[in-house]
Amino acid sequence: MNISKNEILLKGMKLLDLLLLVTSFGLSAWIAQYQIDQVPFEELVTMRMKIQNFILFMSIGGAWLWVFSSFGLYQSIHNLKRKYQSLGVLKATTVGTLIILIDSYLFEIELITPVFICLFWAMSNILGILSRLLIKYLLNRIGSNALSEMTDTLYTKKEFMQILEKERIRADRNNHNYSIVLFSLDRMKPHDNDRSMLLQTIAGRVRKIDEVGWYDNSRVGIILPYTSMLGACKLADYIYNSIENISKMPSCEIYTYPFDNRILIQEKSGEEFIGIEAFSDQ
């Protein structure tokens, strides 16, 4: 089974969060050690090496990752672009800290004091937010071509379908429409410059509320909330104009919901679309 770069990076983020958990825990214990009846630091290390403490800490680590996952922090590398990423870290570390506090009462852990809890919460927040800002910076430094070819900026098929279903439910509830633009990459090789240019153009044009991901194995989809067929066609027109010099022009399909209209764009030449089919799937 092939593992995408997106999955590799997300697994790396989980390991990094575990490392930051251990770091925050250790530093907080070291600073707060004098609050525990002046217990020597050597004795603290020896105490935490006990098997039962090790098992307890492993369970805390599992709960920590579960909380982060529940707040959508491991959904996709694409989320690093979102402004709410830092807020998600803040919420997750707060809930995780509360779990540790509850464990301290249940298992009578003397090491965990109010001073420790405050220190741990602050450190885990700072390290968690800084780590994601650093990852985002490093990804941007890779370069636009490499970033486009690394599909970590795109949702997987499963993730994209989940987002699409949520958007459909939201549209039904709020009585608004949305559109989907699909670009076919079946004529483009994975490391083709034409493919890179197309993905770069899409990434530079979409709004913050839009979502980009794999619709299937050969088509990249753009979900456009609160967008009519006309608005989606304008986006497709912009993208076609931006990549008009590539050798293999992709075909494009546009759908709107709830009207269920569809436009199939086979090619664009000059100022006109060639081979357009507009019809209803009803």
**Strand runs, count:** 8
Specify Rg, calculated over alpha carbons: 24 Å
Q: Give the helix level as a range of percent.
A: 55-70%
* Low-pLDDT sequence parts: 143-150, 265-282
Profile the largest sheet.
Answer: 6 strands, antiparallel
Instruction: Indicate the overall shape.
Output: elongated
Distance between the termini: 38 Å
Give, in spatial order, the strands making up the sheet with the most strands: 2-3-1-4-5-8
User: What is the beta-strand fraction?
Assistant: 5-15%
Average pLDDT metric: 77
From the helix content, strand content and strand pairing, which structural class follows? alpha+beta
Order of helices and strands: HHHHHHHEHEEHEEEEE
Number of helices: 9
Task: Chart the SSEs and their pairings.
Elements: H1 5-32, H2 41-48, H3 51-70, H4 85-106, H5 114-141, H6 144-149, H7 157-174, E1 178-184, H8 193-205, E2 211-214, E3 219-225, H9 229-242, E4 252-257, E5 261-265, E6 267-269, E7 272-274, E8 277-280
Antiparallel strand pairs: 1-3, 1-4, 2-3, 4-5, 5-8, 6-7
Helix pairs in contact: 1-5, 3-4, 4-5
How does this structure look, described?
The strands form 2 sheets. Strands 2-3-1-4-5-8 form a 6-stranded antiparallel β-sheet, with helices on both faces. The protein has 9 helices and 8 strands. Strand 4 and strand 5 form a beta hairpin. By secondary structure, the chain is α+β, with helices and mostly antiparallel strands. Helix 1 (5-32) packs antiparallel against helix 5. It has helices at residues 5-32, 41-48, 51-70, 85-106, 114-141, 144-149, 157-174, 193-205, 229-242; strands at residues 178-184, 211-214, 219-225, 252-257, 261-265, 267-269, 272-274, 277-280. Residues 143-150 and 265-282 have low confidence and may be disordered.
